[in-house]
Design goal:
The complex is a heterodimer of chains A (473) and B (262). The longest helix of chain A has 29 residues, at 202-230. With 473 residues, chain A is of the alpha+beta class. In chain A, the strands form 5 sheets. Chain A has a 4-stranded mixed β-sheet with strand order 1-4-3-2. In chain A, strands 7-8-9 form a 3-stranded antiparallel β-sheet, with no helix packed on it. A 3-stranded antiparallel β-sheet of chain A has the order 12-13-14. In chain A, β12 and β13 (416-425) form a beta hairpin. The relative contact order of chain A is 0.15. Chain A is built from 17 helices and 14 strands. In chain B, α5 (141-149) crosses α8 (240-250). In chain B, α5 (141-149) links the parallel β7 and β8 (161-163). Chains A and B meet through α3, α4, α7 and α17 of A and α1, β7, α5 and α6 of B.
């Protein structure tokens, strides 16, 4: 991690803009204050080839605002609204400064015209869903504009990290975005391990990969379940839900938790899977056969595919400028998979296959990307199990000496990159800023309704596959 | 379309027979931590727990399972004092105090009162209920476990339990999450919109006590600050069997002790 400090905000933004133009990926903008009455520091993170750099500027004491980054780098749109919520700082020139994590009056309707009205959808929605409010502006069928209000679920996770010990920090990270528990625990631990300078034993790296890939498969199956359900395919919904349950049961037989919690700890993992490598291999083979066959049947059901084709398209141009993470980016031709570009744990030795090129950016392409990822996940699971069998009796946990310092940690969740900016002091967490792929990507929902109508909404939402918990931390 | 007819028959019946028959997966479930009978020299054990679930009074070690997030630290560090509880159906309780193991003596009367109060409601529900779910700041995992109940493995429809969109049609309210401040209003509105009698189930340790987010200023530390809770279900997240068990207690099919009621 390279730390670059600039004396004033504009100079920093200029540098950031030129580096983004040169190909670095804008990965987040956070604000922090060491203590009350201290000046606020803005940290922008740039993902480079192989690492993530941090650009910093400290605002003058008592500053009430700063020139906004959003007009220069559009992806900072929500990040700056969060900074406004947390510190009351006004990013001057921000196009739409309204509270994001805190309640605020609903914004006035964006599109005016004859017969236009707003359908408030949420926060309590039909079915079993996480709480979020969509304000759908519509003349009846088309959706010219969509507003989102995500504050309902804001739990104050970020401030809760402060003062926790490292082991407690992992527990909270696992519960930041529950459906990506392993990825969040990994990103947190990678940051903690970088601060301490400790090496994760190879066997532990393999166990981590097993859990991370099973989590990916479960999440992608969940998306497929929701898509099939939206299309009213009762048998497909049930079959895919059955496979998802099988994956979760396998995870619980491996570690006791259906979400892989309690496995990843700073320095390694707590234990080996309770199933032998041979049993695991057999389970993975069985699952892979079942899931692959089901996916093939689903992708041959024309009434289903008709609903996905051309639905909710994200243009490759937008995916590239916003640096859309995970399957959403990959489906629109922008692929930056941390397992490949900034590999961690056992991934450098496992040869993650690069994503196939897609450009359509629609719900169909997103589902295709997910099936391809499921395929490669099964491949990685088999490889990792075989390697683990050769490492029986190896050490699983390195001693992670508590140290002071700051580091970034990342992991590729099923939704895309999870990034943790962690500062430790005196063996405790001084500050921890988690950023999920859900937060970075959800804002793109604003822009994918070109030509789509109300009945496409569930498909578009499901195909994004994001978790609201990870947005409104 | 015909491919789906054949695929649907492929695995035969995958649905659990529970609660009519025992289920191996439910029985093997690792639940919240519990204290063992014997207690050695007790120092520092209350600091073990990240959520403060462990207390020691007069030499008796108690675990508040309503705060337990199943991290297992106490079991790993002090195996002589703590152990996992076994089985997916617990811990579900009718009073908050009942989740404290071993039981406090003075809670007996309160439990009797809660049982009687719930019995009045369940009699009126006639064993078939519509359920409304509200997420009050969960981490997203509880939603997955409730959704699992709609799948072929648990299939709550066979037990006369259905998910409904409208609170006006709902008899049971499943609440997840630590009680985020933003959801207090919508949660209360949903509760008020339900007809009487209504049963509220707090699903998960977060909903029961706030879990790790109990002290966050953005949560109310559990959902009972907003709605009156009838059934408390701990777990982080609870197993689908645990949620199913709580639902069956709500309809009066099972007693809180796990017996089949008539």
């Amino acid at each position: 991690m390279t730390m670059i400090t600039q004396p004033d905000v504009l100079a920093l933004w200029k540098e950031l803009e030129s580096r983004v133009a040169a190909g670095d990926r804008f990965a987040g903008l956070f604000a922090a204050r060491a203590a009350d009455h201290n000046p606020v520091t803005l940290s922008a993170h740039l993902a480079t080839a192989g690492d993530v750099d941090t650009l910093e500027v400290t605002l003058p004491l008592g500053a009430t605002g700063y020139p906004a980054l959003t007009p220069r780098v559009g992806a900072a749109f929500w990040y700056e609204r969060v900074i406004h919520d947390q510190f009351g700082l006004v990013p001057e020139g921000h196009p739409r400064l309204a509270p994001l994590l805190l309640p605020g009056d609903p914004l006035p309707r964006h599109v005016e015209g004859y017969g236009m009205f707003t359908i408030p959808h949420g926060p309590v929605r039909s079915g079993v869903m996480e709480s979020i409010e969509y304000l759908v502006e519509t003349p009846g069928e088309a959706i010219p504009h969509l507003n989102m209000r995500v504050f309902y679920k804001h739990r104050g996770v970020e401030s809760r990290f402060t003062g926790l010990s490292m082991p407690d920090g992992v527990l909270l990270a696992e519960r930041a975005e529950g459906i990506a528990s392993v990825a969040h625990a990994l990103a947190f631990c990678h940051a903690a391990e970088r601060v301490a300078g400790c090496e994760v034993p190879p066997a532990a790296g393999l166990v981590r990969v097993l859990h991370a890939e099973l989590e990916r498969i479960a999440n992608h199956l969940d998306v497929a379940v929701r898509l099939a359900d939206a299309a009213g395919l009762a048998v497909a919904t049930a079959r895919l839900a059955l496979h998802k349950e099988r994956v979760m049961r396998l995870v619980s037989r491996m570690c006791g938790s259906r979400f892989g919690r309690g496995v990843v700890v700073p320095g390694g993992v707590t234990a080996l899977p309770r199933l032998s490598p041979a049993d695991l291999r057999a389970e993975f083979d069985k699952l892979a056969t079942q899931v692959t066959a089901e996916a093939a049947a689903l992708m041959a059901t024309s009434s289903f595919l008709d609903r996905l084709r051309g639905t909710g398209p994200l243009t490759p141009e937008r995916a590239r400028t916003h640096k859309a993470l995970g399957p959403i980016g990959k489906a629109a031709g922008f692929a930056d998979d941390n397992r490949l570009t900034r590999p961690y744990d056992a991934y450098p030795d496992l040869a993650v296959p690069p994503a196939r090129a897609h450009a359509a950016g629609d719900a169909m392409a997103r589902l295709r990307v997910r099936w391809e990822e499921v395929d490669s996940s099964f491949g990685l699971l088999r490889l990792a199990t075989d390697q683990l069998a050769e490492r029986a009796g190896d050490q699983l946990r390195a001693w992670c000496e508590p140290a002071d310092g700051r580091a970034l940690g990342w992991a590729e969740a099923p939704q895309g990159e999870v990034l943790y900016d962690l500062s430790l002091a005196g063996g405790r967490i001084a500050r921890c800023h988690p950023r999920s792929a859900s937060f970075h990507n959800l804002v793109l929902m604003h822009e994918v309704f070109a030509g789509d109508i109300l009945t496409d909404f569930p498909f578009i939402e499901a195909s994004f596959g994001l978790s609201v918990a990870g947005v409104a931390l | 379309m015909s491919i789906w007819v054949l695929r649907g028959l492929r695995d035969g019946v995958v649905t659990t027979r529970w609660p009519a028959r025992p289920d191996a997966y439910a029985d093997a479930w690792r639940g919240a931590a519990r204290p063992l009978e014997q207690s050695e020299r007790l120092t520092d054990i209350t600091d073990l727990c990240p959520t403060g679930a462990i207390t020691v009074t007069d030499g008796t070690v108690r675990v508040d399972q309503g705060r337990c997030i199943l991290c297992g630290r106490c079991v790993a560090e002090r195996p002589g004092v703590f152990a996992w509880s076994q089985g997916a159906t617990g811990p579900a309780a009718l009073t908050r105090e009942q989740l404290i193991i071993p039981e406090l003596l003075e809670t007996d009367a309160a439990i009797q009162a809660a049982c009687a109060q719930l019995a009045v409601k369940t009699r009126a529900l006639h064993r078939s209920v519509h359920v409304r779910h509200v997420d009050a700041g969960s981490d997203g995992s509880e939603e997955w476990e409730i959704q699992a109940l709609l799948g072929p493995v648990y299939d709550i429809h066979r037990l006369g339990v259905f998910i409904t969109a409208s609170p006006r049609h709902a008899d049971v309210l499943l609440v997840t999450g630590a009680g985020s401040r933003g959801m207090s209003g919508p949660l209360r509105t949903t509760y008020d919109g339900m007809p009487d009698p209504k049963v509220v189930i707090a699903v998960g340790t977060d909903a029961v006590s706030g879990g790790l987010l109990r002290d966050s200023d953005q949560t109310t530390g559990g959902v009972s600050a907003t709605v009156p809770v009838d059934i408390w279900l701990a777990g982080s997240p609870p197993s689908p069997f645990g949620i199913l068990n709580a639902l069956l207690i709500a309809v009066g099919y099972l007693t809180p002790e796990g017996r089949r009621s008539r």
